[in-house]
Records
---
Amino acid sequence: MRKLDEILNFNQEFVENKEYEQYKTTRFPNKKLVIVTCMDTRLTELLPKAMNLKNGDAKIIKNAGAIITAPFGNIMRSIIVALYELDAEEVMIIGHHECGMTGIDPEGVVSKMVGHGVSEDVIHTLRHSGVNFTRWLQGFDSVRESVENSVDIVRNHPLLPPGTPVHGLIIHPETGKLDLVVDGFQHLNETARV
């Protein structure tokens, strides 16, 4: 059976049995958090459990590596919307150990694209159309530095509400242990003293 059919069959029973009722909440995060984290499958259930988050507690935005590279990209827009429209008050960037984006080789990814049937002409056109293909596919060497860089992009965004704490953490994908990299409250206190 196709995955799509499996999902649709399960969903029909889920709705008919009203299993959704245990997940009812509002669109506003109860704990007033917006979290940017990695799409790693190990974190799907582990991260919320390790942080004592229940359905409705936080806006969780996922991408490859929990990386924010563009101050006016989709991830940053989602953070801004969560802060202004959805009552979030704190931002957490949460990377993880053993991330697949660590040391990723952009040229290796391009080779896999070609191997899966993407035309070399398409790759050539993209490389010469202003898309920095290498940067777009690039990961990082250090998860800690990546988290710090993403925190800096959010913290220095001109549209970030003043006084918003932006934290950086790293989670272990097996144990759920959180390591604090950047304490957003400490940073706010230090900048207030200057």
Note: Helices lie at 3-16, 43-50, 74-85, 106-115, 120-127, 133-137, 143-155, 184-193.
---
Amino acid sequence: MHRSLREQAPLVQCLTNYVSMDLVANLLNAAGASPAMVHDDHEAGEMASLASAVVVNIGTPSPPWVSGMHAAASVARERGIPWVLDPVAVGATAYRRETVTALLAHRPSVVRGNASEVLAMASATAAGRGVDSTHESDQVVAPAQELATRLACVVVVSGGTDVVTDGDRTLLITGGDARMPLVSALGCSASALVAACCAVTPDPLVGAATAMALLAVAGERAGRTAAGPGTLRPHLLDQLHLLEPGALAGVTLR
């Protein structure tokens, strides 16, 4: 599927936040996809009809931006285009919780978040510390499975061990570099890469797992030469671009 991503170069419409736009676009380019940073409600729905996949990220929400999210997600749902919801800091404020609840009506193909975000969606009492996770991903396997079953979609929990589940099938992916959480917007970029991979396979579980495995391999290789998070970022883009067919063979899946 890694080969299909480069051969098909899917157009991914990214309704993402101010912090992440640069890294999201560059990471998609490095992986072989084509980013379209279109979020305004005057054109978001129209662009979604042209896209191969859509990612909706609520990192810096505002009413006009949320309106564009609904327009794009609605078109994606109607046309069978895979779309990914990234519920950034959903447990932090009522506005974010209300926004995510409303967006779920468009039935995302994948929800990707950190452990605290997924717990916040699975339980009304869970909360995170802003965009940071206060839980480990492998601690929320059961809630992620339950959430995936309830939403009838794939749920991805990123962390030291990535969890990818559709409620019935569950994959745990290890790899990457311990400094990856220090690179702002890398989680947002992971959501966009999940969307890109879902565009080239009919199975969103396979697409999501492939995306997380690509990041795990590229992150591990980048970490070998990076001095810190500042150099890890460009090295990660380079390694993602340089990944050869068959690079995922060494990824640990459980």
Note: The first strand starts at residue 11 and ends at 15.
---
Amino acid sequence: MTWTVAREPHDSPVAAALWRAYYTEVSDRWYLLHENHATAPDELEREIAADTGDYLAPPTGALFVVRYAGEPAGTAGVRLLDPATAELKRVFLRKELRGRGGAPLLVSAAEDAARALGAERIVLDTRHDLVESRSLYSRLGYQETEPYNSNMYSERWFAKRLV
């Protein structure tokens, strides 16, 4: 089986399905950890709809989809925060395909897009409980850094030089 990575419109049906899978997993993990229940269906729908991903559209953003054996398996996006800094967004790989090499391909595509947009540095935020993500970022050369935002659920911040 082979991996392929390609740009995808942020509002395509494939992107929407992967956004739903991503958000459902991270939201349910947070609620199960902190409140011992999954995300309420109405909250899930409201939050998925609220983040349209417009910031991942050209000319200052990009979204990538990785496919495994031709099937959509995950996403990674990038957007410019300022002329020299990009932000890595929506890094997600379906649970059953993790550990097979797809996530590094996605992150690499996003980093290349950030460089093409002129970024010299890429940043991201994540949570304590997303240990798989934190491990991935460390393996790919990201280092923990000071907070660059005040997102409610952000607990860890990473950065990497691109040049």
Note: The longest strand covers residues 71-82.
---
Amino acid sequence: MKRSDKIIKRLFDIIVSSIGLLLVGWIIIIAAIIARFDTKLSGFFKQKRVGQHGKIFKVLKLRSMKNVEGINTTVSTIKDPRITKIGNFWRRSKIDELPQLINVFLGDMSLVGPRPDVQGFADQLEGEDRIILTIKPGITGPASIFFKDEENLLANQDNPEVYNKEVIWPKKVEINKAYIQNYSFFKDIKYIIKTFF
């Protein structure tokens, strides 16, 4: 990706995230209040993720889980008993992702790019795979679209953690590398449209 591509991409992110926050900011605020009463915790969920150049940042989401003691969680969260009914709606409708417009505006994320991963994945990339860390992670992207039913896919595996590590993760790396190596601003527009439709 050329320097000029990164500049255009950042300007686009600032403009669209600003407009997006003006349009849906009220939805984020109302949803966060509902999530606060629904989960008895903060309406926003912050989690450390690996960003550009391996920098750790906190990704923002609407909280969709309550505290349930004694739960042994796995990669698959679709049947996680901590997810509330309202939280399930946030996830299915992708409303829980809206606060990430703040991450985009602040410069931690981009609208389009590899999804930000927890430590133990992106920060462990080696060789030419580390090209993925040269750009900001995105709210959506080609790998996110390809694995749009990832939670269902993992829920149907005998060992979701192994399947994620040995099948899904390598495929995501392959897709994200191709995205960066063949970057086009107009492809970003296409991915945004595909995400909505």
Note: Helices lie at 3-39, 85-93, 100-106, 142-146, 150-155, 160-181, 185-196.
